[in-house]
Structures are given as structure tokens and as C-alpha cells.
Amino acid sequence: MSVKRLPSCIPIPLDEKELKELVSKTKDWVVMHGIGIRSKTAFSEDSINFAPYLLLPSTFPRKEFERAVEIQTTLNELMHRVAHNQEFLKETLKDTIQVDEFTGSLYKIWETVLNEGVTQPLSLALVRNDLMLDSMHSWKQVEFNTIAAGFGWLGPASLAINRFVLEELEHFDKLQNLPENNALTGMTMGLLEAWKIYGDSKAAILVIVEDVTYNICDQRFHEFELKRLNPRVKLMRKTLTDVHMEGSLSENNELMIGNTVVSVVYYRSAYTPEQIPTKKEWGSRLLIERSQAIKCPSIQYHLAGTKKVQQALAKPGALEPFLSDPNKIAAVRDIFTGLFGLDFDEAGDQAIQMALDDPERFVLKPQREGGGNNIYGSEIRDAIMQMKDTKERTAWILMERINPPISTGYMIRPGGQNPPQLAEMISELGIFGVVIGDSQKIMVNRQVGHMLRTKVSTADEGGVAAGYGALDSPYLI
Ligand code: ADP
Ligand code: MG
Ligand code: MG
């Protein structure tokens, strides 16, 4: 396979002396503009490191960027309808929930609230469609995130870094190729609109957070942006353990934290088993779902965001019940790579055989979020051999591996050397969407911005918070 290469936005390498000064200066600039992340290895609440970033923006084909932006509202619509199609979710997840305990527990919460009667028909969704270029001329979907989709702040912040660097280098003519990015305001406005719809000006927005938040700047900037847009809105940050201690339902199912009514619950946690460790936290998860508060996301949206659902949507004829416009259906189908279930049927057996024959062609994925969970390359064979005769296999999906073009750039990370070495990288673009609606109608459906993450080309995964990737912004060519 020939390696595809993207050109650099300006001639590189940069002069060593100039580069060294520039890196020192940008590191200070980045820290001074709140573009940080807490260290996992040396955690302290009192210190924040600068977030790793690309000195220069990576090139991205303009047409493909625009195609990603354009299709976002269709994907929002699709996923909203999927989340509200009980039959489809039940059928798709029926085997997976038997073996994957976490997804099974989420599913039980969904069943419980359906049986009891849904108290809040509206959902707020702050979503992110992630994609990689497959060739220079087409991108493919990596996944669609429906819970805790981060980087509403770090996305626009990356644009600010790269703009600053190009200005420092006096490449003013290049700035026009950096697309604007208002993700933070767009995401925050979604929260505010949901709060307004709830209709109680004294009610708070509750952010569900982890015990320890590493991606603190990204989260806090949403909070501060909310206050900038409306200083009167009350906002609280609580863990699910806090909610267990302080939360309750009022007589008419309003969610209460102490004496404060909660209008909107925004999850920045609760997407991995470690984040809902005991019965107490599962109790909180159910309490919230039972309440009248508008959830971001509601439980059906969380389930719709699983990899198993993504794989089911790629089956022939799967999109038709959800989208009526044949052009939209064709456009969505076009962004899927090969996605295969490992169910106990002919298709599942065939997928197992394909993976054993040529593991390098695939990524093996469980029903997990947050990075670091997938299996790649030769390890796929071992994993498949272990699970192929057990029910376990139905909790995984097999996805064709996307091979993005390589760009060359300078990655700047805390503790890295200065001047930095040029390295080969690959990027993943995320497009943000906001949806508000119920099972009958969609009231808000918007595309609100983007983020770009870049990792060295030899790394399988690229999460920034997970420690693999770096902030970047697209330079359109
Ligand atoms: P998560 O929900 O944990 O983020 P992803 O599906 O996004 O799961 O996978 C994590 C990372 O693995 C992605 O950010 C990407 O770097 C890599 N990855 C996932 N799927 C593919 C694929 N089909 N081809 C190449 N890389 C992939
Ligand atoms: Mg994800
Ligand atoms: Mg991901």
C-alpha cells in the first residue's frame, strides 16, 4: 500500500533557533490562555500542565471538511430517531446486554423508566461525530459520541494556538485557511436552551463529573461560558457518589440536590464502568433518569451511541426506517467503513474468519468509551481465538481499519525536548452537534463546531485526555 501524504501548511523544517524561541513562547501563551490538562502521573489540584498541541495546523482537504460539516445535522437527525426507536435498540442490543455487564445495566435503567412511564420526554444531545480521512478524497466515520463529547473548549482553543503561531511567523496570508470554530458557545447555548425549556429560572444545571477531572479546562470553560451568556444560571458539579448522598426526587419527580431543583443534567462522566463503580452510583444514575430533569444524554441516547448500534446501522437497509430522503441515506452510507457484528450467525462466523485471515485490516472494538479499549493488529487474532466459541464475542464489533494520510509536524508536549523533532502524524476530526427533541419532534438540530486531534502515525489510538494525542486545528487546502 502506498503511503498518502498531506503537505505542510508552510515550508518546514523551521530554522532551529527560531523554532526553539517560538516553542518557548507558545508554551507560555498556551498556559496563559487556559489551554491545559491535569497530569495523570503527577496529579495535583493546584497545577495544570499545558495540553499537548501541534505547533502548526495540519492540512485537511477543504471539500472533505465541508462535507463533514454539512452532514452533521443529518447524523444528528438519524441518531435522534435511533435513540427513540425502541424496537431497533432492543433488537440490536439483545445479545450484547447479556454479556456486557455495563451496557446491560444501562439497558436495565432504560427498561425501568419505560415501564414506569417517561417523566421527561425531551432529551438534550451534545454529540460529536469523529472521522478520519481514508484517502485524500473521502473520510470515514470512526464513531459517533452521544455522551460526554469533550473538546468544546479545546477545539476552538487549538485554532487560537495555531493562529497565534502563524501570526508570529508572519504568515498572515495563511490565516484565511483556518476555519472559524464556535464550538464552546454552540454547546453551551444548547445547555442554556434546555434550561429555558424546563421553565424554572431558579433551577440549576447539574454537571456529573468524575472523582478526579483531568480534562478540567475543557469542562470549566463550558461552565464559565455559560456564566458569560447568563450569569444568573445556577450550575453545580457533582459526582454520582455526591448525588447518592444529596439527591432525591420531589413528589412530582423533580430532581433535587439538597433544596435546589435541577433542570438539566449534563454528563461529563458515567460512560465507563469505573465511573459507576457501586450500587450507590447506579442508584444515582437511575434516580436521575427517573426525574423530570432534561438529561444530556438521556439513557436511550447513551445506548444509541454504542458501537453495536453503529455496526447495526451499517447493515443493508438499516438507514431507511430513520431517514426518508434517499440522498441523505446515500450520503450517510458513504461514510461507513466495513462494520461487522460477531453474533452467532453466518455473518458473524464470516467476520470471525476475516479477522483471523487478515487481522491488520481491522480494529476490534468493545462497547466502551474514552479511548484505550480497542484491539489492533496481531492481538486481534489472540482475542478472537479466545472469545469465538463463547457468548463474549457478541459484545464486540469488528471494524475495517482506516488508514489516514500522513502529515509531518511538530508535536509539543510537557517535558518534551526543545527544539522539537519533526514527526509523522495522523489526525482525527470531530464535528459537534446539538439536538433537542422528543420521540415525535426535533426542536433544535445544529452543527456547532469542530475539533482536530493528531497523534504520531505509529500510535493506534489518539485520545488527548488519555495521553496519546495532541490538539490540532485544520488548515484547509
Ligand atoms: P472511543 O469511544 O473509546 O473513543 P473509538 O472508536 O473512537 O472509541 O476508538 C478510539 C481510537 O481508536 C480512535 O480515536 C482512533 O484513533 C482509533 N480507531 C478507532 N477506530 C478506528 C478505525 N476504524 N481505523 C483506525 N483507527 C481507529
Ligand atoms: Mg467514543
Ligand atoms: Mg473516540
From TrEMBL:
User: From which domain of life does this come?
Assistant: Eukaryota
- Residues binding ATP are 143, 307, 365-374, 376, 399-402, 428, 455, 461
Q: So where does Mg(2+) get bound?
A: E143, N145, E369
| EC number assigned by the record | 6.3.2.3
GO cellular component: a single term: cytosol
Q: Could you say which residues bind substrate here?
A: R128, Q219, R453
Q: Which cofactor does it need?
A: Mg(2+)
Q: Which residues form a coiled coil?
A: none
* Annotated GO MF terms: ATP binding; glutathione binding; glutathione synthase activity; magnesium ion binding
Q: Where is the Glutathione synthase substrate-binding domain?
A: 204-304
Per the record, what are the reactions this protein catalyses? gamma-L-glutamyl-L-cysteine + glycine + ATP = glutathione + ADP + phosphate + H(+); gamma-L-glutamyl-(2S)-2-aminobutanoate + glycine + ATP = ophthalmate + ADP + phosphate + H(+)
Involved pathway(s): Sulfur metabolism; glutathione biosynthesis; glutathione from L-cysteine and L-glutamate: step 2/2
Per UniProt, which keywords does this protein have? ATP-binding, Glutathione biosynthesis, Ligase, Magnesium, Metal-binding, Nucleotide-binding
Gene3D superfamilies recorded: 3.30.1490.50, 3.30.1490.80, ATP-grasp fold, B domain (3.30.470.20), Glutathione synthase, substrate-binding domain superfamily, eukaryotic (3.40.50.1760), Glutathione Synthetase, Chain A, domain 3 (1.10.1080.10)
Q: How is the cofactor bound?
A: Binds 1 Mg(2+) ion per subunit.
Family indicated by similarity:
Belongs to the eukaryotic GSH synthase family.
According to its UniProt entry, what is the function of this protein? Catalyzes the production of glutathione from gamma-glutamylcysteine and glycine in an ATP-dependent manner. Glutathione (gamma-glutamylcysteinylglycine, GSH) is the most abundant intracellular thiol in living aerobic cells and is required for numerous processes including the protection of cells against oxidative damage, amino acid transport, the detoxification of foreign compounds, the maintenance of protein sulfhydryl groups in a reduced state and acts as a cofactor for a number of enzymes. Participates in ophthalmate biosynthesis in hepatocytes.
Subunit structure and binding partners: Homodimer.
The UniProt entry, under PANTHER family, shows: GLUTATHIONE SYNTHETASE (PTHR11130:SF0)
The protein depicted here goes by the name: Glutathione synthetase
Organism equals Dendroctonus ponderosae (Mountain pine beetle)
- Lineage in the entry? Eukaryota, Metazoa, Ecdysozoa, Arthropoda, Hexapoda
